[in-house]
Every structure is written in structure tokens, then in C-alpha cells.
Amino acid sequence: MRRKGLYRSVAFLAIAGLIAGACGGDDDSAPADTPEETSEEAESPAEEPAEEPAVEAGDEAEGDVDTAIEEEESAVAYGGSISVGVEAEATGLRPWEDTCSSPCYNMMIAVFDKLVEMDVNGNYVPYLAESLTSNEDFTVWTMTLRSDVTFHNGVELSAQSISDMFPIQQAGAAGSSAIAAANLVSVEATGDLEVTYTLSEGGSAFPATLSRAPVGMVFEPAAAADSEGFSMAPVGTGPFVIDARDLDNETTFVRNDEYWGTDPDGNALPYLDSISFRPIPDEGTRLDALLSGTVNAMQTLRQGTIRDARNARDDDGADITLYEFQGNNVGGGMYNVLVPPFDDVRVRRALTHMNSQEQVIEALGGTGISLPGTQWFSPDSPWWSEKVAEAWPKFDFDGGVAILTEYVNDPERSDGKAVGEPIDVELSCPPDPTLIASMQVVEQLYTASGLVNVTMTNYDQQTHIGIALGGENGFVGNHQQHCWRWSSDDDPSVNLNPALAPPTAEIAEAIGLPGVVSPLNFSNWFSPTAFQAAVAATKTDDFATRYGLYESIMLEFADQVPVYYSGHTATAIGVESNILGLNSWHVPSGDLGIGFPNAEGRWAEVFIDS
Amino acid sequence: MASLWLVLVVFGAIYAKLDTSWFGGALPLQDPNFQTNGFIRETGEFGTGQPIEGMSGAHWLGTDAIARDTFARIVHGGWVSLVVVVVSATCGIVIGGFLGSLVGFVRGRTETVVMATVDVILAFPALVLLLALVSIFEVRNLFVISAVIGVLSIPAYTRVARANSLAVSSREFVTAARAIGTKPRRILFREVIPNVLPTLLAYTMVAAAFVVVVEGSLSFLGLSVQLPTPTWGNMINQARRDIKINVAQVIWPSLALTLTVLSLNQVGDFFQQRREVRGSNL
After folding, report:
1. Number of folded domains in chain B?
2. Whole domain around residue B85: which residue ranges?
3. Chain B residues with beta carbon closer than 8 angstroms to that of A441
4. 20 to 30 Å CA-CA from A461: which of A198, A412, A520, B79?
5. How far out from the chain centre does Cα A525 lie?
6. Is residue B254 part of a domain?
7. What are chain A's domains?
8. Residues of B with CB under 8 A from a CB of A
9. H helices of B22-125, where?
10. Is the peptide bond before A281 cis (omega within 30 degrees of 0)?
């Protein structure tokens, strides 16, 4: 009974991720350990490696181009204003309601603080919280808040504020999903500054929930009564206060003179007088805006733009600094394993062998920028495994042809075609030029084998997701080989558990878990061992144990190949070179923070070098 | 010059189609989908072609993001435009022309119903309506795209045909035909339609320019024929990512599109002037 309950919890997690997945973007925050006691003195998972460290997880890989997170040497300076070009207008500025992607988080983080943040080593550490501890089975988490923190409207932050946020979060589109995913059932003020979170099922990754916007960003609950109004005039405890919001044009925040945060030297934050965000959807125009001085900073999640920005800096002498980041998020796609011929692992393995990552990355414009993916973790992630990297099927055209020939000549082949007939593959990506180029590279490779008839399709993002979701056919989906992105810098459980849960009611029924269906298992691949490993990993905070479980899952991926990879997603924030501090912000303990994952900056410690 | 360009486009498109369909690529024009840096099974190695290359002897207009010959793709891209133009003109002239001629001749309730329907269809922004219709089809091949654009071309032709049919129907020779007891059907087919047709043919050139732009827009948005079929619109879309590295890859297909539209308008104007067609008729 208990195990069944655990599995059900994963199903909730699956539903929770739906909206984020539908947006095709990542949530905020990043990877790493989920220790039982997350305190300012918490040790890094990288410092607690697996018992048999056959890996150098956490190290920068050869060719990785991440900008270093390091202390800023220049003397900080107060004053000045900057404008940031972002790729889209924020869907809204209500953490509990609006499902955000990178541009939105850039704005939100200016006005809201998170309870928990991630430090440079990948640990979840207290931020607006002062401490966070759990009981033994991770069902009750006790958090103590910082004292003397006030909201922008002058209201003092208290445990009751956090408790009052809970019903609002429960009713919000983003909040309700996150709450269900975390099995969070109550939030009580058990002291002036003490908050107790109770979970229906223990989860060692709960601090990750408090590091993400829907539950972790702190807003003034009374002000949130007017939900629409709040979106235009958000009230948080963050370093900046909303000044003006002109939708699709500019949103401006000014310095919060009452901000609680200081830098390690005790200087009050933030340094800037104001910061504004301007949505500039076109990649080229946004870069040009930076180069021409129309904006002082810009973000991008496109490799081609990073390449162009590098060229502008290196070849044209543009006076800009690029803060590049490449996290766990990895491009590629999936095979629908419930649809012949992809139900046969030989086909999946053969197609993956015939798919040249190098060529695809070049077509994506990512040569020298994007690292080839072999798993859901980048080489500098503590969860990365060399064993998995070695096990992943590499480009081997002849090997792939040999495997596919075996399938094609099998009288019992699953697609019902005659022996010797080529297989049919529908390859589909959204109509982005880079994806279209990469798709055509794959098509050329498959066609060269003479064993594959390829049809290429491309639908808008929403349709593309809908086809894979397959709401009308019991979540089997109507896709075959489908472009997709995998993973994020959150705790591995956030992405893996929904992707490994039973994909259909029939499968759930067959394994004795009726009703436990994950619409987010898009490839429809189900392995009881992988699923059990994913669930087990949420029941312990021992890094070595969790590492081993996630490694076993990734090894099974390498063996069964339900998904395939191109390169890790490179992101960047470009700034005028006199704008400093983006890679040197700190958590309250004085340690460096995670930096700028997914082109999401933390702007409190940014300053203009005079 | 305009006529010459159109002849070149049509000749190139037909030549390219013959090359791929009948001669298996034996004619001296590169395969528009061949990736010169792609995998060569015989050698087990990748080709030495370069993506986003400038103009060279091997690739007159350079190569695109996956090292395909841009010149070949532009020539082949003309085929899609040509087919769409021919289908839309045929649909427009045959169906729209007949409907317009008919209602302009018979008038009455038939005219009210038909023209009200035409007005409703024309009231929708053409591209939006087209996007909606095209999105319905999961498989978007040349037949589907041509058919959809063809159907949407009918109302405009109907309106032009009706305007001319009204004028022709009040002419002396039609009155005379009626007076001597000629059957209406005979008047329609022998007197009205033959006199409306030249105007419709002149209008076809102007409409064709619009159709080329519409198809280009659909291609740019990824809603025209499926990949890897080259069209000028999808070439522009795919090249825009690399515009800072090689702007020519955007310019060449844009130029082909622009010159074609300009030429169609020029030739259309010429014919319209010959027929003394006035915009007010529309």
C-alpha cells in the first residue's frame, strides 16, 4: 500500500510538470543535492562523491564554454540604470499563477526573493529563509525566516505571510501544480518566523520546490488579493520595486532602499538605481540593440545568437561581455515506443547510431558552443556519469545500418511490412529554422542508409506538444520521432520522475498501479526498474545513493534508447563590458550563487564600473 | 525585361522538375537537397562542402546552413510558385469567372446570394483565412497548398468577372441577341463570357503576383509544402538565422521573389492597360 502511494505521488509530479513542458521552457533554479538539513554550512554534493567515483562529475568538460562564477575584483559602485533586452514579455509577474520562462524570471527575480537559492556548488541553501530542516522521513520541513525583512509596501515578512501565501498558491495555475508535485498539504506558521511545511509523502528534494517561483518566491499575500493588479504592480521583498509597467514595451524597477540584503562586505544592495526590461522577440534585433547601445544587456537561449555575439565581440571589436551558461537541458528528441517500428529497440538504437550529433550541432549553429549530450546531465553537473557517456550509442553509421538491416529482414518485424521493405519514419520538429536545418541533416543520414523512408513535418510549438501529449488517445500521442528537449538544472527528480511513470492507463493497470498515468512520459517508454529507481531517489538525501540510482536510470536509457540527444542548450546574457557582477552574486552565507542559469540573471549585485 | 524574367523562372522551374522527375538528376543542375557536407555512404565519410558559403564556381550563389546549393534551390523553388499560380488562376478563371459572369448576366436573387458570399469571404484577411485553412491539413503537399490557395482565389475572380459581365450584359450586341430570342445560356457562353475572359486573363497576372507572395508567406511560416522541398519562402526563413554571417543567403531567394512579383505586376499592368481595366471595376 505504501509503495502504491509513492507511485501516486509521482503521478502528481507528472501533472505538475505539464504546464512547464507545454511552454517548452525551463522553470527557474538549478540542479543538485537535497540534503536533509539545508543550512548555510551545508556541504556540496560535489564534495560528497559516490563511493566509487568513476566519474569526474562536476568538472568542466573539454570544450565547455561556461563563463566562470568568481568573485568580482573591481570595486563596486552605486548608481546608474541599465536596460535589459529579453526575448519576450513576461506572461505575468505573479509567481503563483504565471507559468514563466527565462524572460519572466529575469523580471521576477528583481522584485521577489526566493526562500531557497542554489549556490555555486549546486547546493540548495537558505536565502530568504535562514534555515530549513526536515524530519527523518522528509514529511515535515521546518523553516526559519530571516528577521527584519519587509515587503515593498512596508508590511513586515513573518511566518504568517508564508502561511497566508499558501491558499493563494493552491489556487494558482503554477502554484497548484508545484504544490501537488511536492505533495505539500499544509503550511503553518508555528512561530513568528518559523514555518512548518507538511508533505503527504516524504520527498528529499523538497528544498528544490522552495527554490522555484511557484512556491519559493515570496509575495505579499494581502496585495495579491487583486490578482490582475498584482501582475502589473507586484509586491515582494526583492532588491527592486516596480516603478512602471508598459506591456510589450518596458517594465522598470527602481532600487528598494529598504532591502535586507548586503554583499559580503556589508554594503547594502542593490547597487543599481534602476533596471528596466524590454521585450525584443527577434534574436538579431535584440543583439543589435545591445551592440548599438539601445539596451545595456540582453539575454538569449539561441546558439546562433551566441555565435553572432561572439563574432561581434571577437571580430568586430564590440565592447561587450558574454556570460555563457550550458546546463543540463539538452536538445534532441524521442521515439514513440508504442508505435511500430519504434517499439523495437533495434530500430531506436539503429536510428540513434545513424544520427551524427556533430553534424546536427553544426546545423543548429552550435559548433564550438554546444556540447554533445549523452544523458540528462551536463559534464559539469554533479549528477553526470562517465559510465553513461561511454555507454551512450555514438555515431556509427555502418553499425546502425547493420542493426536496422536485421530488423528490416526480420519476418516478425513489428511494423507489419514485408521483409526487406524500408521502415517509415515521420520526423517532426517545430518550424524554427535551426531545428528545420538539423532535421534535414538527420533525414539525409537516414535516407543514405536506403532502409528508411523519411517524412518530415513541422507544426507550431503548441501543436507539436499536443501531438506528443496525445490527450485524445490515452496519452499515447500521434508522434513517431519527435524533436524535444530534456532535463533542466532542477533536482533530477523534477524531470525524471514524470518521464518514467506509466504512460498509459493500460500499462498502469498491467503493473498493478491503476490510475497512475503520467502524460509527461512522452516517449511512452516504461521500465519498472527505472521507475522504482526514480521513486527511491526521492526517499533519500544521501548523494551517493541518489547518484547511483540516477546513473542506473541513465544507463538503461543508453541501452533502450527511448530518447536521443543533440547538444546541451547554451544560453547567454550579453552586457556592455562596464556592467559587472552578474557572475559574482552571493547567497547570504557569503558563498557565490549559481550564476546565471538559463540566461536568468540575478541583478542585485550588478553594478556599472565607473 | 519583366517578361524575360518570368520566362526564365518558368523555364527554370520546368527544367528543374524534369530533371528530378524524368531524368533522375542527370541534367546539369545540382540536387537542391544534396548536403555537400553530408554523409557519403560509399566512403563512410562526410562531404567536404561548407555551410553558409559565399559565391563560388561550384556554388554560384553559395550554400545554405546545411551546405546545399542555393542556386539549385532557387531554381527548384520556382516550381512550387509556378504550380500554385497555375492552379489558382485555373480555379479563379474557371469557377470564379463563370460564377461572376453568370450573376452579372442573370442578376436577381442569384446575384445577391453569390455576391454576399463573395463579400463575406473577401472581408476576412486573406492570409489569416489561408493560415486557418492550411492548418487543418496534417499533410501539406503541393496539391493541398495549391487547392487551398486556388479555392481562396475564386471570390476575387468572381468579383472581377461580375463587374465586367454587368458591363458586357448591357452592351448592344447582348440586347440584340435577347431581342432576337437567343436563349440566355447561349448568350452567356457565346457573348458574355468570351468578352469577360480577356479581362480575367489580364487580372490573372496581378492575382498571380499576390499568390506568389501568399505562398512565400506560408513557406516562411513553415505552413507551405513539406520539407525538404525548396521554396523561396522557406529558404528565406532558414537563412535568416545566419543573416549576420552571410546576408546573401537571405537576399537571393528574396530577390527571386521580388523580381517575380514585380514582373507579374508589370506584365499584368501591361495587359490591363491593353484591356482598359480600371481598378474601380474591382
Report:
1. 1
2. 73-281
3. 35, 38, 66
4. B79
5. 21
6. yes
7. 2-325+569-608 (3.40.190.10), 330-495+561-566 (3.10.105.10)
8. 33, 35, 37-41, 44, 46, 51, 65-66, 138, 221-223, 226-228, 234, 237-245
9. 70-91, 97-106, 108-123
10. no
